[in-house]
What does this fold into?
Amino acid sequence: MGIETSVANKKEKEFCELEKAKNPILDPYPNPKANTNSKGKKGRRRHLKKAAVVSPVQKLYDTCKEVFKDRRPGIVPHPDSIDKLRAVLDDIKPEDVGLSPEMPYFRSPAAGRTPAIRYLHLHECDKFSIGIFCFPPSGVIPLHNHPGMTVFSKLLFGTLHIKSYDWVVDGPCNVSAVANPSDVKQSEIQQPPVQLAKVKINSNFTAPCNPTILYPAEGGNMHRFTAVTACAVLDVLGPPYSDAEGRHCTYYYDFPFGNFSVDGVSVPEEERESYAWLQDKGKQPEEFAVVGELYGGTWCFFTLQLLYIKG
Ligand SMILES: [Fe+2]
It folds into this structure.
């Protein structure tokens, strides 16, 4: 899901520099050499106290920087690094990022209107991105992929339905399908290519729960999020989407296995629910509305202080 971030990055940088100059206690890693005051032990104690204050979001940023330092598309971080980042995400609470279900982002839309999903951008570089999706009830992020990425999704509050798939290894790849003869209308239409996928997750998750993790070729690389209640999801992508590097976000239709016939492909009747044919939608679905929020755009100053990230 491509979200415009350049303005947000500029605002973030401006905010960090402004606040650091105005209030040096926000800097969690002050330069010891710069502490040249002559207050002796008192000054050193104050320095130690400042060094110990690291916000959960700063900790997340620092951990991501370490975990994704050797980022290369398709390369999964070491299992120890995965565990480390998972543990940091486990500890993050809605209040750490200044969110609560009572905020306007999470209100139901007017009758007949598509629930708009907000994306709060925290950080993006060429190695990883961090952001939060805010869902009103019934908000949907349609089925999409994460090419070459490792993605951590932490549900901060609410209940979210996740349906995810992985490609079937050695399965038919972008083949022409013939619609099931029982669907006369569809069988008359030339079908775009489809690819066979296996269901990985098809469940509701209610916070607090463990983060879900997907990988380039397993763990449910293609997923759809549907908000059962208002909810917020903290997402870490490593590496992020990049059109320049060929990591586009592709959206898919998913059709039941029985809808199409492909030469040489069969699945036992009792296992058919676990498979689906995925078809490239070709563009971002029109009904999918994501509003990117500037970092600090509508958040209160207190929240901005909590979200201060030292890059
Ligand atoms: Fe996703």
Q: What stands out?
A: The first strand starts at residue 117 and ends at 124. The mean pLDDT is 79.
